[in-house]
Design a protein that fits this description.
heterodimer, A: alpha/beta, nine-stranded mixed beta sheet, seven-stranded mixed beta sheet, 9 helices, disordered N terminus, disordered C terminus, B: alpha/beta, eight-stranded mixed beta sheet, 12 helices, globular
Chain lengths: ~375, ~450
């Protein structure tokens, strides 16, 4: 009888609960970001797509938005918005403590840059809010082999694990010369490199990342006989032998480019891309401005770099360069480390609206603006 | 017979004489000035719409007609601009184009003196990004660095680019450089310079007064001397007796203050004949700039102003203040870089402080800076943020009388990646995207 007496109120309460449950995506269920442009592996933007994120924090599908069940949509993205993999601060020092200086050993295979990573660094969270979701750090290139790089997610936490084993970080540059140990001269350095490549097992010659910033460094690097070309960190200018990289599936880390900076470096990068070299923009955090990666891309595009190549240099190629296959692409099985931009990320006016780290969403844009743009479900 | 009849017409005779006369005369210019006609151009409008395809007629360097049914004058140069969007050339109020390492540290220095008109790479990059006119600002050690100049990037007959429009637009003061202690010293140095100029102005005023008094005294002395001359003959004998006495030398002429060219420029500022631009990013430097303006009573333009949101109360009280935003610095380094706010522009607008945008660099990045700031400001169109000329509020929308034009491949009012295709200055295409290239900033 009491139930009957209280039925209007109870019914209302039950209705509210039912509505809330129906409206909220079930915990553990797939979530869908719909109506959004998606940056594909080729760097082009496919409009009106939907990205499905599974309960493990991975991308499970990328499908046309009109094929999505409307009840599963977590976010209907604002018009013109673009979802991308996370930006990647490559070979900067974001999250690193100390000077990242290597030891005194010339060939140090055991040095781990991961040991210098401080997961409690608040800059990680600030970078993430600017769309930079990954950081790869390496020791300073003061020896021929400077240990291994380490890649982490930009997330402030008590502890963090690197996303993969890292790559060996080599150097053929004047920074490796030292008056108190060998090599003391460029001649000796090149000789040691040739000897190592000729005498070591092929299993030891893991293609890593080679620091060779000057044109002469690159020329000598190409002369010493790599069985497989490493990722090249090269600033370059008109003297760089970029034509020798054509057809060799080379990947080159360039930049960061600055407004009013050295135009020769930008032209060199554009020329390398035209020769078929894939580019990746180097990071500069925490010393540089937070939007420096996108600024590098905008400057390179203004100098003639193809827009798709610039997007690859921002998103997929840094992940390739550091050897982590689970990031850098929006495809089934990849980590759902995503950034929702208000427009094409190459447009300096584009703002970071939302980010996802392993599928967990964080709203970034000011609430006043976001309410005008998105329609939460 | 026919030729005789033709030459019998006075008009034809005059025309023939003009045609055959050597050299270029104003008549030649008017008769043979070929108009440039842009056909099928789309023009973005401030209300967000785009015009129907228009014909734009440029005569003697300026747009004289802009309509759908305009007729192309005879012998005009026709430019097929189908699908291109036209705006006025962009104006960069904070440029360091071609200055590079040129350093200046005096109020008498003008940025124009350091402009390298043959730095074709840098100038070409600026023009390719749609910039046709700049305010070149000097840079150097902190303090008073020199005077800002307005320059049109029009090509010159003898080679190079750059026509001086105004040499002294504003005095540039840099309070932004160095450690905190160095910046305090810079502030004191600037203050001392203005005080010295103030004393110099008082000295000149005193000198003027003393000079007037001297001239009056001199006239009086001359008058007295005349009267004395009349009596001279009578008193000749007496004078001979008084030879041994001292002669009256008359009034003493006042000493003119030493010339101080740098001080003269500062006096122009104190008399509000020359505007001031102060570069300050941190809150303490901005407050120092406010102190300077209050003490010496001049209005100024604040450049940088990254931390202006922290001292907005002090800025609100100033009369004639405007803000020139340049490259937004969003560093993650705490303490190493100014603390910016994404709400700065709304706050400035709320406080009624006018603001504009400049590149703060070599101008090729102006459009990127404008777009970045338009994203921050939440403005519908970045074109409303960029000026077409030194006049504040002259946004880059196209209008009659405009002499600098940019033809874009996309609608720059809406499309973030729109690139210039052609740049036209005074009726001449000064830059055109090389076929098959991606060159040209967006």
């Amino acid at each position: 009888m009491r139930i009957v007496e209280n039925s209007p109120g109870r019914c209302l309460l039950l209705c509210c609960i039912f509505t809330l449950v129906a409206a909220t995506p079930l915990a553990g269920a797939d979530r869908v970001i719909s109506g959004v442009g998606v940056v594909g592996p080729e760097g082009s933007i496919s409009p009106a797509m939907a990205v499905v994120i599974d309960q493990d924090g991975q991308v499970s599908a990328v499908i046309p938005a009109d094929q999505v069940d409307p009840t599963m949509v977590e976010i209907k993205a604002p018009n013109g918005s673009v979802i991308t993999p996370g930006l990647h601060d490559l070979l900067g020092s974001l999250g690193a403590t100390g000077a990242l200086a290597a030891g005194t050993k010339l060939i140090d295979a055991d040095l781990r840059a991961a040991d210098a990573f401080d997961s409690t660094d608040p800059n990680l969270e600030k970078a993430a809010r600017n769309g930079i979701l990954h950081t790869t750090i390496a020791a300073l290139p003061r020896g021929l082999l400077n240990g291994h790089t380490a890649t982490f997610v930009c997330q402030q936490s008590a502890s963090a694990r690197p996303l993969g084993p890292g790559k060996p970080f080599y150097a053929l540059a004047e920074s490796a010369l030292n008056s108190s140990r060998e090599p003391t001269s460029r001649v000796a350095m090149v000789s040691m490199w040739k000897e190592w490549l000729a005498t070591s097992d092929a299993s030891e010659q893991i293609p890593g990342i080679l620091f060779c910033p000057k044109p002469l460094d690159l020329r000598q690097s190409l002369d010493i006989g790599w069985s497989e070309l490493p990722v090249l960190v090269h600033s370059g200018d008109a003297r760089s032998p970029l034509e020798r990289l054509a057809g060799r599936q080379a990947l080159m880390v360039v930049g960061p480019f600055l407004e009013g900076g050295d135009a020769a470096q930008v032209r060199s990068a554009v020329k390398a891309s035209a020769a078929g070299v894939e580019l990746a923009f180097a990071g500069g955090l925490p010393a540089g401005p937070a939007d420096h990666l996108r600024r590098s891309a905008a400057i390179a595009v203004a100098a003639g770099l193809d827009a798709d190549a610039a997007r690859r240099a921002l998103f997929s190629n840094p992940a390739r360069a550091c050897g982590v296959s689970s990031i850098g692409l929006i495809e089934p099985g990849a980590r759902a480390d995503l950034v929702l931009f208000s427009a094409d990320p190459l447009d300096p006016a584009a703002q970071v609206l939302q980010i996802w780290r392993a599928g967990k969403r964080l709203r970034v844009a000011a609430p006043g603006k976001i309410s005008e743009l998105e329609v939460p479900r | 017979m026919i030729s005789i009849r033709l030459f019998s017409s006075p008009l034809l005779v005059v025309l023939t004489v003009l045609l055959l006369s050597p050299g270029e005369t104003p008549c030649h210019a008017q008769l043979f000035d070929r108009a440039t006609v842009l056909e099928q151009v789309l023009v973005p409008r401030p209300n967000g719409t785009v015009s129907e395809p228009l014909t734009i007629v440029i005569r003697r360097g300026r747009i004289t007609e802009m309509s759908a049914d305009a007729d192309a004058p005879m012998m005009s140069r026709k430019v097929d601009a189908k699908g291109l969007y036209a705006t006025a050339g962009l104006f960069d109020p904070a440029s360091t184009l071609t200055l590079g390492a040129v350093s200046s540290a005096s109020a008498v220095h003008s940025a124009w003196d350091g402009f390298d008109r043959y730095d074709s790479d840098a100038i070409r990059a600026a023009i390719a990004s749609g910039v046709t006119r700049i305010q070149l600002q000097p840079s150097g050690p902190a303090g008073i660095v020199g005077r800002v100049s307005t320059i049109s990037l029009a090509p010159l007959d003898g080679g190079g680019h750059g026509v001086l429009e105004k040499e002294a637009v504003a005095l540039c003061i840099d309070l932004n450089q160095g450690t905190p202690l160095a910046r305090i010293r810079t502030f004191e140095k600037v203050r001392t310079a203005f005080r010295t100029a103030q004393r110099g102005r008082e000295g000149i005023e005193d000198y003027s007064t003393e000079l007037e008094e001297y001239l009056e005294a001199l006239a009086e002395a001359a008058k007295e001397s005349g009267e004395k001359d009349k009596k001279k003959d009578d008193e000749k004998k007496d004078d001979e007796k008084k030879d041994g006495e001292k002669k009256d030398d008359g009034p003493a002429k006042p000493d003119r203050p030493d010339r101080n060219p740098a001080g003269d420029v500062l006096i122009q500022v104190l008399e509000q004949q020359l505007p001031v631009r102060i570069l300050a990013r941190r809150s303490e430097d901005i407050l120092n700039a406010v102190d300077l303006a209050t003490e010496f009573q001049f209005p100024f333009q604040l450049q940088g102003a990254d931390e202006a949101h922290m001292v907005l109360g002090s800025l609100k009280e100033l009369e004639g203040l405007s803000v020139l935003l340049d490259r937004p610095q969003r560093s993650l380094d705490r303490g190493a870089a100014p603390r910016t706010s994404s709400q700065l522009i709304p706050l400035l607008e709320e406080a009624g402080i006018p603001w504009t945008v400049g590149s703060g660099g070599p101008s090729s990045g102006l459009w990127r800076t404008v777009r970045a700031i338009s994203g921050q400001a939440g403005k519908a169109s970045p074109l409303s943020l960029v000026n077409a000329g030194p006049d504040r509020g002259s946004a880059a929308w196209l209008r009659r009388g405009t002499s600098h034009l940019v033809l874009w491949e996309g609608n720059p009012a809406l499309d973030g990646s729109a690139r210039p295709n052609r740049v036209i200055i005074d009726g001449t295409v000064v830059w055109q995207r090389p076929a098959g290239t991606q060159e040209g900033s967006f």
